Structures are given as structure tokens and as C-alpha cells.
Amino acid sequence: MDIICPLAVPKGRRLCCEVCEAPAERVCTACTVTYYCGVVHQRADWDSIHEKICQLLIPLRTTMPFYNSEEERQHGLQQLRQRQKHLIEFCYTVAQKYLFEGKHEAAVPAALHSLRFRMNLHGLSSVELVPAYLLLAEASLGLGQIVQAEEYLSQAQWTVLKSTECSHAIQSLLHRNLGLLHIAKENYEEARYHLANDIYFASCAFGTEDIRTSGGYFHLANIFYGLKKLDVADTLYTKVSEIWSKYLNNRYQVLSEARIQQIDLLGKRFETDTGLDEAQEAEAIQILTSVWNIRESTSDTAPQKTIFVLNTLVMLYYLMMNSSKASFPRKAPCLMEVEVPLVEFSCVLPSCTGFCPLSKAALQKSSDVRDVSHLLSPACIMETALSSSRGICPLLA
């Protein structure tokens, strides 16, 4: 990174830090179009998002070339808008992923980039700015900055109120973040009101059984769990688990029916994918792991519910293994060498069909569901699925 020479800056032009908008003193030497107030914010932005989009910023932040005709100029503007839309979605997805992984500080620069690109493309009062405001609000809540979160949410609310074209999906996100704000302020009545609205608008947009609606059920369940209303919380956690289990099993069935098999010297290839983006995969891991931890603490009363969540987690990790977003990329390629056999597990979950490495003999060896939970800890869920793909169930070893 080079230090900016004040004499090299054109008169009347103000260079601002990409993170805090303070007067800039340094410039990124790789793209030469991004500025920072110091090394700390440059490093934060680089680690969060800038490393991934550094070269993509150059055509967006430099003067457009001279075109010989109006047709060429319109084509150039269309390409510019497409690049902006791509960066909006990319930065938004990266910021979402950080939030679901609990990396709230890293999510801020990515969310700020998404917000600025939206402003440049849609204007300062467009409803398209709302998702970025909500990301920044959620990141602020995670960092304990409640006042800052309230400011972002106020901007989002005001933008929605002014708009006549706000979708149900955006209103769902707005109410979800307002619910999270009131949870942080321990105002549970207001939190329940907003989360109920979140579920309503998400159901209108996607349906009551959609994975995008499950987040509202999950946060509402957390409130009832904290209030010791365990029956209501249990019902909602079960709903969340069923939604994800149904989605993942349906996804597996689709892949099984339409899978692409290529014969080579190593045999058949079996391609797997969750059908989710990185942020949705991170959300699924966060939700299902949280439900699993809660189920484990109450496994004495309903061990089958713990096994249900475990099965769903195994299915999720299994479908993630062979994609470019796999949790253990070094081990994933071994799935390409063999066709993964389906293992019957009606003994575990009669209502579901699909892949699970748990067999009846393995469960008979475990006198308590906590034994199974120990065998399928987060560190070895992937190992279990990998071993099963070779026709070996580690629980039977």
C-alpha cells in the first residue's frame, strides 16, 4: 500500500476511507482505486472482501473509454451495470456467510461494499438498499453496538415506508432484524411480534415449509426456550428440523434421479450439491447445530428428536462434500471415485428416506442417544459420511 501524496490529488477531490469514510491517506497498490485512512482498515477490508474483488473494482471506478457510436456506449453501460449487479450479490452473500459463521466484524466491510454498489446503481432512496442496511444492523448487533444497529434499522424502515414496491421477502428480513434487535434489548414481547410478522411475510413470499421461512421459526423458538416455555420451543424446533430435513432429502432424491455418471478408469462419479449458496449453507449449519445442542441437553426425554437432527446434519454435510464449498476439501475428492450407496435407515427415522450412515446394528450398540451424539460430533460427521461412501460404517467398526 502506498501513501497518498496530497499534491497528486486533483483540487476539489476528496478521497475517503473505504471502511469509515474518513480522509484517506493510503491507496491499494493492486487496484489503485481504493483508499483507506490507515493500515488497520486496509487489512480489515482486505481480509473481509477486497482481496476477492480488488481487480473487479478497476472498471467500475475509472473513467469509461471513448466509444465510436451510441450503440457501443450503451453496450458499455449495460456491461457496467451487470458488473455492479454481480458485485452487489457477491458482497451480500459473503457478508451473510460471515454473519452466520459469527464473524460479525468481518461482515461489515463486505456489507458496506454491497450498500455502496446499490446506491450507485439504484439511487439513495431505493428499496434495494434495505437488504444491505439489514446486514449492517445484524453485524452491529453481533458486535454489541445496539445504537448503531438501531440507526441502520431506522434507515431501512424509513426506506420501506416510502416505497410502494417493497416485496414480502424484504419485509420479512426487516421484521426478522427488528426481532433480533428487541431480543438484544430483552424486549421479548416486541421481538415475538416482529418475528411473527417475519414468518407471515416469508410464508407469503416462499411458503410456510420453505427453508427461507425456517429462520423466523428458529429465532421465535429461541425466545420461548429462553423464557422456559419448553413445549412451544420444542414444537418450533421440530418444525425447523422438519423443514431442513424435507429440503435436503428432496434434494438428494433429485440428484439421485438426475445424477450425471461418467465412466472412467476409477469407476463411476457421483456428483452432489446442496442447491444452496454459501450463505444459506452457513445458515443451515448454524441453525441445525444450535438445534442439535439444545436437543442434546434434553435427549433423555426425546432421544429420537436428537437423532432426527443428527440425520439432517449428516445429510447436509454429505451434500456439501463434493461441491466447491465443502468443509473438508482435501478429503472430498475421494467421493468422485465411487458411487455412494444408499443405506437404509428406517430404523432411525421411519418417516424419511435418503442417506444416513447410522444402521440398526450401530444403534443397538449404543444404549443411549448421547453415545450416538458422541460418535457423530461436529468433527467427525464428515468422516462418517466419507467412510460410509466407501461402504464402511465407522459405527460398526
From TrEMBL:
Metal-binding is among the record's keywords: yes
Domain MYND-type per the UniProt entry, residue ranges: 17-54
InterPro entries assigned: TPR-like_helical_dom_sf, Zinc_finger_MYND_domain, Znf_MYND
Stored SUPFAM superfamilies: HIT/MYND zinc finger-like, TPR-like
Keywords from the UniProt entry: Metal-binding, Zinc, Zinc-finger
Keyword Zinc on entry: yes
Lineage top rank: taxon: Eukaryota
UniProt cross-references to PROSITE patterns, sorted A to Z: ZF_MYND_2
Pfam families linked: zf-MYND (PF01753)
Protein name per the record: Zinc finger MYND domain-containing protein 12 isoform X1
Originating species: Acinonyx jubatus
The organism's taxonomic lineage, starting at the top: Eukaryota, Metazoa, Chordata, Craniata, Vertebrata
